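TL;DR need structure tokens for one chain.
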Amino acid sequence: MFHSARIKLTVWYLLIIMFISLFFSVFIYLGVTREFDRIVRIDEFGVTHPADLGERYIQRPVWDTEVLPLPKPADPALIQASKLRVIEGLAGINLLILMLSALLGYFLAGRTLRPIRNMIDEQNRFITDASHELNTPLTSLKTSIEVNLRDKKIDLEKAKNVLSSNLEDVNNLQFLSDELIKITQYQKPNSYFQFEKVLLPEIIKAAVDKIKPMAIKKNIVIKVNAPKFYVEADSRSFVELFVILLDNAVKYSKENKSVNITAVKTDSKINIKIEDNGIGIAKDDLLYIFDRFYRADKSRTKQQVKGYGLGLSIAKRIVDLHKGTIGAVSVANKGTIFTITVPEA
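>> reply
TL;DR here they are.
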């Protein structure tokens, strides 16, 4: 599909360039032939001004009585041959322009279509991944219902257990749909957000308040050391950013540990670190943690932490929209440090 589109776009480039080139070629040819015709008329009918003859006219003093020879008339065959040479020259130039335009047009068509192709490929990957993730709880839900419908001896207690399991699958589906809606919203243009000057500690406090019930269950203390720095941010999405990172920090931390949030200013940048004492992230996984639907094997198998691998992808998008950067360093079984750098307001 993209190859044919690239060819079509190249053809359109060629048509536009050659139209302009031929237009100027005709203009140049008409100008040159008009000059040739003027010279012929001068030779045939004579002139009254020396400048019209150029170097062929030699001005003599008024007392010089020597009769000057008339200029030799221009040869019509020579004029015609000159016109043909002009046509051949312009044709050669246009042929060269055609070949160069074909090469450059094909290259530029590829560059023009590349962002569109990347976007469509990204969209297709997103649809494929989302379909795969949706299929898992749907399959589980369908299988459970079908098996128990065929059970003629099912009692009330077993039915309640089935409904409880089904409800869990429904909750997983709802959670996934909410995450998909969020990541779709963050793909919208910047006009979707309302950027304003906000106080960083207030943003962090709002996020901590949302995560605190989960932290209390695991007896995890969230320590905050953030001076009164101001950032230009969309309050809602910036709170969401810290909720995502703190949620990960608490989920993957061991009980009776702490999560530390610190903020320092370097030049005109605010560096925010969120450090946990959890299971850490393998070195090979660090390269992909911000990809959609990516979850490290360790978190899936040993920790059995619920999630679909969309949180960090959403966090990355939020940071990008705030013209900042996000990265992570981790040591297995010791913890992970996420670092966010955003401009100071």
